[in-house]
Queue: 2 jobs
Job 1
Amino acid sequence: MTEKNATSIKRLAKLVKNPNAKVIFMVGAGISTSCGIPDFRSPGTGLYDNLAKLNLPFAEAVFDIDFFEKNPEPFYTLAKELYPGNYEPSNFHYLMRLFQDKGKLHRVYTQNIDTLERAAGILPDNLVEAHGSFAKNHCIKCHKVFVQEIFEQAINEDKEFLKCVHCNGLIKPQIVFFGENLPSLFFSSWDDDCAKLGEDHIVIVAGTSLAVYPFASLPTEVPKITNRSLINLQRVGDFKNNPRKSDVIYLGSSDHAAEQLAAELGWLDDLKILTNMTTIKLQEDENRETCFTHEDKDLKLDKVADVLEKLKLDEREPEEKAGSEKGEKEKELEVQKERD
Ligand code: CNA
């Protein structure tokens, strides 16, 4: 780790350790590249560099509503690849989940459509999917809404492009295309959150080129008393054009930053438990490649087993739980009596 990054992690950890600290994450495709999902703009590996095989007039056409109307095939090809369930969350996704578990998460704003925040366990109330997701579909002509499964079926069974039963318009997942509005929740949630931002809040922007508006303007709107941090391969957006003295900048992989920040906060074991659970799940399916390549191969399986056991215990009926807790209390009292 460079000296600058090490200092940034220490500064960030100090801010998070403030007992009143609450974090808003603003994330993009860069936090999912380690899961095997290419971002848009990384030279050579980004989607836009690799869309040639789809025969597009211009790369962005794959998410262009007018183009989709004429030729839905490239989007279907891409959707099949990006469809939820094909990939597992990264270290960074699980770090955000840890912030939630530790009571330090205010909100996650994501531009991603891969739904890996949900897969990592971020609760719906804590999540704003600014560019929509595959969770619902709608007809682009009459706007009738359809359930997730119909699109899933269409791409799994290589069916013809889905058409609306009411008006014969094309059906597509509620992913925001260029030329479409963002979900109203994005605006209402940000209005509320932005008004509440104070000196105990930290806004962590990660894995995004901050090139797509209106999302890209969010960091600019963060009040000056609130701390901002950027975790990205390079400086972007407001952190490049209008940097603030207090900005905490980490230039490098978001997964490395996640591990280093977790270590500095004393959360590394918790992070490994979450990522190892995924590793175990992946190992069950021998044909799948795991996206986790932890240097620490010493899987803390005993620790994972402990956690699973605890989860099982917590699922017991309340009476059963109270009964065994009472038993334990009685045992403790007996031991105490014997000692006395
Ligand atoms: P982008 O424009 O491709 O930018 C990605 C940014 O992440 C770049 O600045 C990269 O340098 C940086 N980056 C790449 N890998 C890493 C890494 N390992 N660690 C840290 N930084 C990294 O993507 P944006 O999200 O900014 O653009 C918004 C678009 C991308 C949205 O409309 C998304 O829907 C769309 N998109 C989403 C996905 C996904 O859901 N996973 C994939 C590709 C594109």
Job 2
Amino acid sequence: MTEQTRVTAARGRRLRCRGWRQEGLLRMLENVLEVGERPEDLVVYAARAKAARDWESFAALVEALRALRDDETLVVQSGKPIGIFPSPADAPLVLMACGNIVGRYATQENFDDLAARGLTMFGGLTAGDWQYIGFQGVLQGVYEVLQAVAREHFAGSLAGRLVLTSGLGGMGSAQPLAITMAGASGLVVEVDEKKCARALDRGHVDLATDDLGEALAAVEVGSAGPSRVVALVGNAAAVYAELAQSGLVPDVVTDLTAAHDALFGYCPLGLSLSEWGRLRDEDPEEAARRARESMAVEVEAMLRLRAAGAIVFEDGNNLRVQAGAAGFSGAFEIDGFAERYLRPLFCRGIGPFRWVALSGEESDLHELDRLAGALAVRPEVQQWLDLARRNVPLQGLPARSCWLGHGERSAFALEVNGLVSSGRLAAPVLFTRDHFDSGGMTHPHIGTEGMADGSSAISDWPILDALLLSASGADLVAVHGGGAGYAGYMQSAGVTIVADGTEAAARRLGRALDADTGLGVLRYADAGYEVARAAAATAGLGLQTASRPLA
Ligand code: NAD
């Protein structure tokens, strides 16, 4: 890595920009690279989700953010800053569109070609709009799914159960901790031995080995002993197939390799990492074809394990689509995690909300966690905060991911804005969320699979969400398209708002956070979900709000 690429987020109270709103966004641009997987290539996570188009764009973004006034809006096209326009002081500071290609042309081939020519980039969900906070971002998602699995299939507890999964990359590296937090044992297959060693160094797994027998002995299959998690160096397709053959049936089976990206995200069977790299360079089509074929082998093994009694689901990485593309017709017999386990939460606007202490001070994060716990009405929130405080190490700027719902997010953020104003915190706080949220995403094979009214592929919702967030004055609003590996499959919206302690920030936070979750609840209500209809009625969401008396 060169000098230029060694990016870390600024800490402390010194401003390099004209205000905290701009400074907060700049610190997040730096932070996603500080905690990212391959910062030297600007890659944050998900195989090739980037923070900026190229290093020239990165430098231009930094310069633009430093100079940006409150009454201006910076426009960013797929990771490259394009222009600065005058705007009202309460309008967004940054507007982004990333990886969008019109429907008929949104193919993987077109995306790869346009990206290679430097015209677009894949921003993932939270990379291109600087909202990624490290593996914690997906940690609670994985944990919530495991909890739902426990409730539905294992009388509320995964103690003594074995979870088989794979992938220890940017997001995947959250899995060992989530498995431990859920009280289960885990076998996590990862083809890159360095990622296994990293998980061991971090203390997230008890053992890293390339010996399946040793791994299985270590997780003490069948016993109700303490939870143990093992990183197994190997190829998921090979290991899953071997387990399916052996007759040993894990209780829960899933996968979090970067399967969505057949070229860069999934190592084909029988290849070492260096052989895979060479094949990608020499014959990318063959590399992708072999990866898809291997995914089909893995999915077939997952179905055999399911037939033998395992609970099997896809964890939001498009594995089933890739296996289907390889001609394996049964892939969609496997459940998608969102439809099966998370939808009731999304119906109430509950999803992956996040806060970041811009000061860099851990004491600010403690104070924020304490306040979130004190305000929580649902016991799960306090329970999660306790678990997170005990188990989640700091990664980059101190941050917390915490699933909050409609009304809960704005109530908390307004209190925090008050704390900033009174000087109780060392610096302002930034709020954001994953795009994988109730209003923020359309992906017919992930977040919006199997919508009750058939609206799974309708991407009006994230676009409306982004427009509404802009109208509400959020500080950064982004519309992301599928891009690498998700081309043609996804549309999503991202949002960031800084609580700088001002009254203007309070207005922005209240309006934008409620609009975001409110639209999410209405979307599910519109699709016919009773839970969402009840939540909308309780919160007074819908057309009736238009007839409210003028304030
Ligand atoms: P990443 O590219 O950082 O890591 C992928 C890992 O998979 C790498 O460590 C790689 O070595 C490993 N791998 C590749 N092929 C393998 C094989 N055949 N066997 C075993 N290991 C293999 O990606 P990431 O950031 O960890 O993301 C993983 C997936 O999760 C992506 O598809 C991403 O889009 C998806 N995702 C899911 C959620 C969610 O809520 N569930 C959220 C965000 C992202």
